[in-house]
Amino acid sequence: MTPPSLAADKARLRRDIRQARKAVSASQRRQAELAISHHARRFLRPGRRIGAYIATGSELATDVLIARALGLRCRVALPVLPPRGRKMLFSVLDGRGRWYRNRYGIPEFDGAHWRARDLDVLFLPLLGVDGDGFRLGQGGGFYDTTLAYLNAFRRWRKPLLIGVAFDCQRVAAVPKEAWDVQLDYLLTESGLRRFRRLKPAA
User: Fold this and answer.
1) What is the distance between the alpha carbons of residues 81 and 123, in angstroms, rounded to a whole number?
2) Residue 201 falls within a domain, yes or no?
C-alpha cells in the first residue's frame, strides 16, 4: 500500500507534468512523433514482436512509429485491458481483427493475444521518468502489474522496455515503490537514452 505522503508527492508530480505536457504545441508534437520514429529504427527489425500503445490525452502519439514498424515487417501488438484485475495482454494488429473502445474510451484491437513476455520490445507510455529509468504512470497500475515478473525473475529481460515521452516529462526523481520496474531506454524527441541496470534492493 502506498503511504499517504508518497501518494501526495506522486499527485503533485503528476499534476505538474500534465501541465507541461499539455503545453507542447501541435507542431512540436508532430516533430516529436517523427523524431521518435527515427530514433527507434534500431529496434525495428523484420519479424520482431513489438508492443506499442495508442496515445490518449496529451501523450506522445506513436502512430508514425507503429506505421514504420509495420513497414519494416515487424509484428505489432497493442495493450488490452482485462475484464478484471490489472494484468494486460497485447493484441496483434492484423487484417482479421476489429477496433473497439475499452471502458476508458481508449481504442483497442481485437486480435490474437500475446503475453508481455512474448514481446521482444515494448514501447510504453509514461507521465514522468527520472535519471535512473523509473517511470511515473497514470496511477492505474496496469503496466506495473503486467511487468511485475521482470522484478521476480532477475535474469529474464524480455521485453526490452522503452519509455516514450517528451523531454519536458523528465524529472529529477520519481517517488519509488517496491514494485516499480526500471526501463531499459527512454525515447524522446531529442534522442534515445540507455539506463544503467541497477541491482534490485535486498
Assistant:
1) 16
2) no
CA-to-CA distance for 10 and 60, rounded, in angstroms?
20
Counting the structural domains of the chain, the total is 1
Kindly report, residue by residue over 48-94, the tens digit of the pLDDT.
999 999 999 999 999 999 999 999 999 999 999 999 999 999 999 99
Q: Which domain holds residue 98?
A: 4-194
Residues 6+ positions from 77 with CB-CB distance below 8 Å: 49, 50, 51, 52, 90, 91, 92, 93, 111, 114, 119
Copy the grid coordinates of residue 17: 507534468
DSSP class of residue 139?
A: S
Give me the residues paired with residue 129 across strands. Answer: 135, 170
Residues forming a β-bridge with 100: 108
Q: Which residues contact 182 (CB under 8 A, 6 or more apart)?
A: 132, 133, 134, 161, 195, 197, 198
Residue length of the chain: 202
Residue 199 lies in a domain: no
pTM of the model: 0.93
Q: pLDDT tens for residues 93-109? A: 998 889 999 998 999 99
DSSP string, 5-61: HHHHHHHHHHHHHHHHHHTS-HHHHHHHHHHHHHHTGGG--TT-EEE-----TTSPP
DSSP strand pairing (121-125 vs 191-194): unpaired
